[in-house]
Amino acid sequence: MILEYKDVQFFKAEAEPPSAPTSLKISGLAFHSALSVGKITDENDAGSIVVLVHLIPATPGTSGSFAIDIPIPDSVNDVRFGNERVEIWKRGAAQP
Fold this sequence. Notes:
Blueprint: E1 8-16, E2 23-30, E3 35-45, E4 48-57, E5 65-71, E6 78-81, E7 86-90
Parallel strand pairs: 4-6
Antiparallel strand pairs: 1-2, 2-5, 3-4, 6-7
């Protein structure tokens, strides 16, 4: 199962450094009590990076929280999250 943006609590996407991002720090907590984060993958898709958080059944010692640093090459215009590809960062856009 892939975690979707609407199912994340405490979601953060912070560019480092804010003025000229070379990486994006993404973190949050899956809002599924019976599931934990198994792995996080990212894929390039026509000028976008798509971040996918793969969920697995929760077991002792696992967690629903996640944090990852994604390098942003110059060829990337935006970063999207989940199968629904919700835009979480866009080159040149003011970041909150």
